[in-house]
Write a structure and sequence with these properties.
Rossmann fold; globular; single chain; 38 strands; 633 residues; 38% strand; binds 2-acetamido-2-deoxy-beta-D-glucopyranose; mainly beta; Neuraminidase
């Protein structure tokens, strides 16, 4: 469950900011191996084009746009500085793997289905690609699910590794890795003979939480186990000498929301070593360059680009209370590890490309410098029950004189964080601020940013310590800003949606609640969602083996204490949190006579992201808060 710094119940923290009219957008940033150029997918509204820029001064060197009706994605440089990318034409059912060299662009293969993550081999002659032939849905559990009809559970989308020759276009696509095994991520070994990969047997959406670290042979496709870590794993990377694999390991609730410690393990196989043990920060991106390990970490309110020497704390090079993003992780590093580039934004400043040597990163694009700030943001820290906790307070520009109402928005995950993203009018935060509310974004126990022990501290304690951290955070905010304690509201989606339903049974401090894709009954949730495996690392046992642990955090068992009026929304085809969870809570509140409204959005997946539907959610949420919070007596 996620969303943000990154996204299972992910919906908020790291999600891409909504496109605002007139704002220049940069997506999918990659950096050339020599650090001299960046590639991004850019637009100022309308069609996107691939844009190559000088990494020193941000000047546009060239644009690439071979298909006027296509959307582009997955930019990746070859070792010689050529660029590969994917082009998808909404009119045809397929994805083109394109190769740009100099000013010429050609199509190497067309995948009948969906594809992601092209990577050119170290010798430049082959391109590996993850393909899902005949895909029934988009990859990832936050996407709308397929209809539950026919014989259930017999057919899964399978993402497999395929390899193409740069010199000879292919008319067919034949996967290399074996059928029945879903490949999530991979990296070439430096000798070009194979890959390290994270894989799982069976349904890809459901089994990422138990994925293993494996080697795949580039000739035969044979799979060999390297390690079966107890944690979730992301960003597997092979050392330049080909002997060691590093990865980010940690308690992660969502595939797209990355955070943990760095582990290393021999490529030959063995027991992984935790090389950032005890750090008070969360590693969110990992690369292994010729110059050593490079990381992006979240430390409290600051994002840091750093150098990691095993056994020492991450040495931060560049740190800023902002959010970085790139095509694969939060930043892209040059092959020698000296330079870095990323798209950087915070609550008050719209996205810009930052690039340069790790210790001297600078802003190099200025397309959005005139975009106005819609809030004044403040990082707030507090202590609770021995933990250091951090959150963000966003103040409206038109705050009324005297005390103002405040909405606390709980991020998804729970393994995630609310991190700075430029506030546009087309976002929930933007709409709340415009309506005159303060917005509080707490990163309570279970979040990223304070080290692994903090992230793991809400295991078997959902809605316990994390809710107490949030309530203590509201006290802390009330000491530094003119907040009216009698006019507090609560909102969130995914894990945040669970927290809002649960909080209704624990406190009457909030006057109105907006619950998106929430979980009201963990017993009925188990077995009816598409990602049951995510709960095992958090609860320790399945619901069948420890029913009480799941009952103990289910709002439906505490209905008698719930009094707060609630607006509930959910996507019809949400497989992370099926709409039945919202229907159960709506029915319960109705039965008790608590004001409640439920809207189920047709065909929507997790947390309802299509622009027109999201606009409807915002309008109803503001109207709900205005009725029950702003005008509360
Ligand atoms: C980028 O610009 C700098 C000067 O601003 C120049 O020295 C360098 O050669 C340029 N690099 C490329 C790849 O255009
Ligand atoms: C790394 O090691 C430390 C110290 O043993 C431990 O507290 C932490 O949980 C470990 N990290 C992970 C992701 O297991």
């Amino acid at each position: 469950m996620r969303q943000t710094l990154f996204a299972a119940l992910l919906a908020t923290a790291v999600a891409a900011p909504a496109v605002a009219q007139g704002l220049h957008q940069y997506y999918g940033l990659a950096m050339a191996p020599d650090g001299s150029r960046t590639a991004t997918i850019e637009s100022s509204g309308g069609h996107n084009v691939i844009t190559l820029r000088n990494a020193t001064d941000g000047r546009v060197l060239r644009t690439i746009d071979p298909c006027a009706t296509c959307g582009y994605s997955d930019l990746s440089f070859a070792p010689n500085g050529d660029l590969v990318f994917l082009a998808r034409d909404p009119a045809s059912k397929g994805v083109m793997l394109d190769y740009a060299s100099g000013t010429a662009t050609r199509t190497i293969a067309t995948v009948p289905g969906i594809a992601q993550t092209p990577r050119v081999s170290p010798d430049g002659k082959r391109i590996a690609l993850l393909v899902t032939l005949g895909a029934e849905k988009e990859a990832g559990a936050t996407q709308p699910g397929v209809r539950m009809i026919g014989e259930i559970g017999e057919k899964n989308d399978e993402q497999r590794l395929a390899v193409f020759d740069v010199a000879s276009p292919s008319s067919t696509v034949t996967p290399l890795s074996p059928a029945g095994r879903y490949v999530y991520e991979y990296d070439w070994t430096p000798d070009g003979r194979g890959f390290v990969a994270t894989t799982a047997l069976g349904n890809g959406d459901n089994n990422w939480w138990v994925a293993t670290l494996d080697a795949i042979d580039a000739q035969s496709g044979a799979v060999r186990s390297i390690a079966k870590p107890a944690t979730q794993i992301k960003h597997p990377r092979v050392s330049p000498d080909g002997r060691t694999v590093a990865y980010i390991g940690g308690l992660m609730s969502d595939y797209g929301s990355i955070g943990g410690d760095v582990f290393t393990v021999p490529l030959a196989g063995g027991t992984p070593t935790n090389i950032t043990a005890g750090a008070k920060s969360t590693v969110t991106t990992l690369d292994w360059t010729a110059g050593g390990l490079r990381t992006v970490t979240l430390a409290g309110d600051a994002m840091q680009f750093g150098t990691l020497v095993p056994g020492k704390p991450v040495a931060p090079g560049f740190a800023k209370p902002a959010t970085a993003s790139a095509g694969d992780g939060r930043a892209a590093f040059s092959a020698d590890g000296r330079s870095v580039a990323a798209v950087v934004q915070d609550y008050e400043h719209a996205p810009a490309i930052y690039a340069g040597p790790i210790a001297a990163v600078r802003q190099v694009t200025h397309d959005n410098d005139a975009a106005p700030a819609l809030t004044r943001a403040k990082s707030v820290s507090w202590k609770n029950e021995g933990y250091d906790v951090q959150g963000w307070l966003l103040a409206p520009l038109n705050a009324p004189t005297g005390k103002a109402p405040m909405i606390t928005m709980v991020h998804g995950g729970p393994s995630s964080a609310s991190v700075p993203g430029y506030v546009t009018p087309n976002s929930m935060n933007g709409a709340l601020l415009k309506a005159g509310y303060y917005v509080f974004l707490p990163n309570a126990r279970g979040s990223f940013g304070q080290g692994e022990a903090f992230t793991a501290a809400n295991k078997r304690d959902f809605g316990g310590g994390d809710l107490r951290d949030i309530l203590a955070g509201i006290d802390a905010v009330e000491r530094v800003a003119p907040i009216d304690d009698n006019r507090l509201g609560l909102g969130g989606c995914s894990y945040g949606g669970f927290m809002t339903m649960w909080a209704n049974t624990q406190t009457n401090r909030f006057k109105g609640i907006v619950a998106g894709a929430g979980i009201s009954n963990w017993i009925s949730y188990y077995g009816t969602n598409g990602i049951d495996q995510w709960m095992l690392p958090f609860f320790g046992k399945s619901m069948y083996d420890d029913m009480k642990a799941y009952e103990d955090v289910s709002a439906v068992y505490r209905l008698k204490s719930a009094q707060t009026p609630t607006f509930i929304y959910v996507g019809e085809r949400d497989i992370e949190v099926p709409p039945t969870q919202s229907v159960e809570w709506w029915h319960a509140l109705k039965a008790k006579g608590v004001p409640v409204s439920l809207v189920i959005y047709p065909d929507a997946g997790h947390c309802v992201t299509a622009p027109a539907q999201a606009a409807d959610v915002r309008a109803r949420a503001i109207a709900w808060f205005d009725t029950y919070v702003k005008n509360a007596k």
